[in-house]
Fold:
Amino acid sequence: MIVGILKEIKKEENRVAMTPAGVEVMVHAGHTLLVEKNAGAGSGFADEAYVEAGATIVATPAEIYAKSDMVMHVKEPQASEYGMIRPGQIVFTYLHLAADEPQTQALIKSGAVCIAYETIQKADGSLPLLTPMSEVAGRMAIQQGAKYLEMAQGGNGVLLGGVPGVDPGTVVVIGGGVVGTHAARMACGLGAKVYILDMSLDRLRHLSEVMPSNCFPLMSSPATVRKLLREADVVVGAVLVTGAKAPKLVTRDMLKTMKKGAVMVDVAIDQGGCFETSKATTHTDPTFVVDGVVHYCVANMPGAVAKTSTPALTNATLPYALTIANKGWKRAMQDSCEIAKGANVIDGKITFKGVAEAFGLNY
Ligand code: NAD
Structure:
């Protein structure tokens, strides 16, 4: 199969869909890899590294779309690309169609086979192509929280780990899934006092067993959230209710009870955010202040640490890309329920229930 790796054109997106190491594996399996010029630059991969791995560098996205059986991106195709997608071509990337009607209509019109990273699902319900980016965002949440606690950044001037003879800071992580666990581990590693809240008792039992002794897993309830907010230096929003907008667990009223200069990092902002006062921000202007509390609400956190995020993404996507390229999309979907769940739009028809329901379209 001819596989095209496109350069990301969405604002502040430095990742690329495949590392040179991934390209080498695909080429070794007999596929032809086309990589758009400078596609890897933001992730630290020069065109020469792709050529060494066996790829051909191609000057424009139009050429990639014209020549490839399958194109791969990180973010969804942008409006300037819609007209380049060919009928029958496989588009394999994050799509997030349920929140994007113009893109959904464009992909229906294209007649392409659109497989979304985010809906590929394992038998246990986990989403293997979302997990690595949640790991990155969770770890980064504490790095951002610690940075914005500094006084010059508007924070309250607490060093999360404290020092001998001085108390550490307090971190409250709401949601004990992938993001929450990685955030809590980072905060524990710095030496902070860490609370992690979840609604699932089974999850809390697991966290009690595996987390360090400076981490306290607690059942999430409005009363517990209210109590811990008074103490918190950093609050991380990390909840997910599958298929729904994030619940607003910290209301505007509660901010008044918090310390001035405390930092709230709403990682769940891509699902609407779990703090009432959250609104999406960007890496160039990541924070704003409400009632003296600093809010960090960047919706594409992993894009800022592309040298980590790109290899993490390739580690997860490569086995699926290889299977689709080896078998073709039809056989790959017949043989793998995981890949079949990734099908969102095929030959002009929506094939994913959640997307069809979002726009009242036929499924
Ligand atoms: P996950 O499913 O692994 O974990 C979510 C957890 O939230 C679950 O354990 C669930 O039991 C818990 N939960 C649900 N309701 C709760 C409540 N009321 N109180 C406490 N806990 C509750 O999900 P994840 O992979 O950790 O992702 C979390 C969020 O982060 C998602 O919205 C995801 O899209 C988002 N995310 C954002 C970025 C970014 O760049 N901003 C990057 C990656 C992930």
Q: What stands out?
A: The chain has two domains: 2-120+305-359, 131-299.
